[in-house]
Hints:
Strand content: under 5%
Order of helices and strands: HHHHHHHHHHHHHHHH
Number of helices: 16
Helix content: 55-70%
Shape: elongated
Number of domains: 2
Radius of gyration: 30 Å
Distance between the termini: 100 Å
Number of strands: 0
Amino acid sequence: MTSEGEIFNPPAELARVHIRNAVEYVLQYPPAQGKYALENLLSEVDSEYFPNTPEKALIALQKSPLLKARTSLVRNFIIVLIKKLISDADEYKKRNKYISALKTTEIMHKEIHDNVLSEKFSDLIKSLKNDKLNIIGLIIQQLSEYWIYIDNDVQQRLENYVQNLPTTEIFRLDSLLAFKPLQLYAQKRFCKITQEELFDLCCFGASHSVIELSINLFLTPNLYYSKVDWGKFILENASDYSLDQVKRIIEGISLNDQVGNSRKIRNMITAFKQNRKLNQTIVENLIEENNLQKYMSSKNDEDNDF
């Protein structure tokens, strides 16, 4: 202790103890707050080896300044991550890293995370021009919980965009069909799909959503003007249809055999009978129960051309 006004002049040994303690408990660690801490966090996320899954990102960020960060640091970190996400949404690897970091921040600081999104998210994406609306779609499909933070006017813009999805973006339609808030608008766009667009959409196989919609469009041809021959599509993808889906098609044909000409229906039923993934006894029973035996092909009458 020293008296008031007296210069503190510790002995060398005590000075060394103070310096050692400062290094051990303060100086060896990166800044925990402020600009340098934010730069440190962002540098870690932008690094080549930052995890692209929330589970692994949580392990990494629990050892960072984010663990005991002040509200201002967490807020700034979230805002910058969202800006980076919007800027680099088209880059798959970067997008996944930013999304992982955001989800981790939500786990560590949920209240701050939710407040920032409520205040800032819609404003950050509102300035995007129409030709960049696909970016919002990319983000929302992976962060579906963010939909509630988008203002109504921006939601409406996105709904109109999906309903009139450009041909160049048709490959995104599959995931949009599975996204509940935009599902209705994606279905409306699907009803207007062309043969070429359908080929691009299903080049690696038809998804469950596409299979389901193809049945509806095939069985209700008078309700929609379609540029696609859905009977031909079903025939070409017959091996992708489940037993329940085949049952719906057979029952639908029984109720309205005007959905296709007799040759088309015969070829479709033959394809279902040839699908070894289905229980053939059940398929044949369905055909008989719905009085469609007349469409069953003989060995000398098999023709899969429409």
